[in-house]
Design a protein that fits this description.
With about 270 residues, this protein is mainly α. Among the domains are: about 50-125, Orthogonal Bundle (Cytochrome Bc1 Complex, Chain D, domain 2), CATH 1.10.760; about 135-230, Cytochrome Bc1 Complex, Chain D, domain 2 (Orthogonal Bundle). About 55% of the residues lie in helices and about 0% in strands. It has helices at about 15-35, 40-60, 65, 85-90, 115-125, 135-140, 145-160, 160-165, 185-195, 210-225, 240-265, and strands spanning about 170, 180. The protein has a two-stranded antiparallel sheet. A hairpin with a 5-residue loop joins strand 1 (about 170) and strand 2. Helix 4 (about 85-90) packs antiparallel against helix 5, helix 4 (about 85-90) packs across helix 9 and helix 7 packs across helix 10 (about 210-225). InterPro entries: bc1_cytC-su, Cyt_c-like_dom, Cyt_c-like_dom_sf, Cytochrome_c_Oxidase_Subunit. It is found in: Cell membrane. Keywords: Cell membrane, Electron transport, Heme, Iron, Membrane, Metal-binding, Repeat, Respiratory chain, Translocase, Transmembrane, Transmembrane helix, Transport.
Length: about 270
């Protein structure tokens, strides 16, 4: 039987198959390029760089008290799990690093920039999960109406006034410690204090006081900042102690002065 002669003709579907393969390959390449372009590696690299910078800052300035790996020492508590919120509060209120050992850290001008504090916060947050720095939405008190301010005042009286005074003027505690005043305090630091419970303060997590309720408390404290005492001179808003002292010194002192003046007059 004679061999079949090759004609060189393609199968009718060959061109269509090649066209489909080409389109699929081109589409796959386009998707791959788009995925690479949209992967946004910069934020991940930035986060790693920030944490690395924070680690260097931490080991140079904080490790002597808190340990080389933030595990704590006899002179400083462990920072594992405290989160970036605690770092931002302690560093940006100037409480850390402490100026000297004492019953509690005192507020002063911060020793680091906000960027440096954020870097150290990123490093501490990388060690273990912890409270994050509050968002702008959580701190936006412009959305709180008068009813919300009133609710914030009630929440403050129930949860905070026994230490900070109903007017946020602060108060004395035991062993040389004290609750600081809450006048003209940054909203982020008020929120972070509730979230992390610095020093003698209890922790008010989102199960105790919700984010909306925290914002209402902040709105109430800002209301106090903007509205001076309607009763006149507030005497430091320290309640019966300062009021009684005022009466004792000036009231009784005035009575004694008038009595002396009257008895000194000739008959």
């Amino acid at each position: 039987m004679a061999a079949r002669k090759k004609t060189g003709r393609r199968h009718p579907l060959a061109s269509a198959a090649l066209l489909i393969i080409g389109l699929v390959a081109a589409g796959g390449a386009s998707v791959a390029v788009g995925s690479v372009a949209n992967a946004e590696p910069a934020p991940a690299a930035h986060t790693q760089a920030t944490a690395a910078e924070g680690e260097a800052l931490f080991r140079a300035n904080c490790a002597s008290c808190h340990g080389i790996d933030a595990e704590g020492t006899p002179n400083g508590v462990s920072l594992i799990g405290v989160g970036a919120a605690s770092v931002d509060f302690q560093v940006m209120t100037g409480r850390m690093p402490m100026a000297f050992q004492g019953p509690q850290a005192l507020q002063r001008d911060p020793q680091f920039t906000q960027e440096q504090s954020d870097a150290m916060g990123a490093y501490i947050a990388s060690l273990a999960p912890g409270p994050a720095v509050p968002s702008e939405e959580q701190l936006d008190t412009s959305v709180v109406d008068e009813e919300g301010v009133a609710n914030g005042a009630e929440l403050f009286r129930i949860n905070c006034a026994m230490c900070h005074n109903v007017a946020g003027a602060g108060g004395a505690l035991t062993e040389g410690k004290f609750a600081p005043h809450l006048r003209d305090i940054d909203a982020a630091h008020i929120y972070e204090a509730m979230l992390t419970g610095p020093q003698n303060m209890p922790v008010f997590n989102d199960q105790n006081i919700s984010p909306d309720e925290k914002r209402e408390i902040i709105a109430y404290l800002h209301y106090l900042d903007e509205n001076p005492s309607v009763g006149g001179f507030d005497l430091g808003s320290l309640g019966p102690v300062s009021e009684g002292l005022f009466i004792w010194i000036f009231g009784l002192g005035g009575i004694v002065a008038v009595t002396v003046w009257l008895t000194s007059k000739p008959n």
